[in-house]
């Protein structure tokens, strides 16, 4: 069931398969076209309209707010972890001290 099966070639090797004959295609002569003259007016590559400038500022502000929220939440998670580890250390210290006094 799981044995690989090798496909059988219906034509034995050494017999070429005939291909369709194509006639040579002749291309018409290409006439060179003069290149357009570049404009000499100084223009910036990016032009901002007032609407797109407002959209860009709003998008940038949104990115800053999202990144800030992520960083603050990570800082808060680290602070909570540090505080809980400190509480556990104090409790363990008190337990160890009580065990040593009990002897």
Which helices and strands occur, and which strands form pairs?
Elements: H1 50-101
Q: What's the rounded overall pLDDT mean?
A: 82
Number of distinct beta strands: 0
Give me the number of helical elements: 1
Strand content bin: under 5%
Contiguous low-pLDDT stretches (5 residues minimum) are none
* Radius of gyration, whole Å: 39 Å
Structural class given helices, strands, pairing?
mainly alpha
Provide the succession of SSEs: H
**Tell me, what's the shape?**
flat
Largest sheet: none
| CA-CA gap between termini | 73 Å
Percent of residues in helices: 40-55%
Give the structure's gist in a few sentences:
The chain is mainly α and 103 residues long. It is built from one helix and no strands. The protein has one helix at residues 50-101.
Give an account of the 3D structure.
It is a single chain. The radius of gyration is 39 Å and the shape is flat. It has one helix at residues 50-101. The two termini are 73 Å apart. It is 50% helix and 0% strand. By secondary structure, the chain is mainly α.
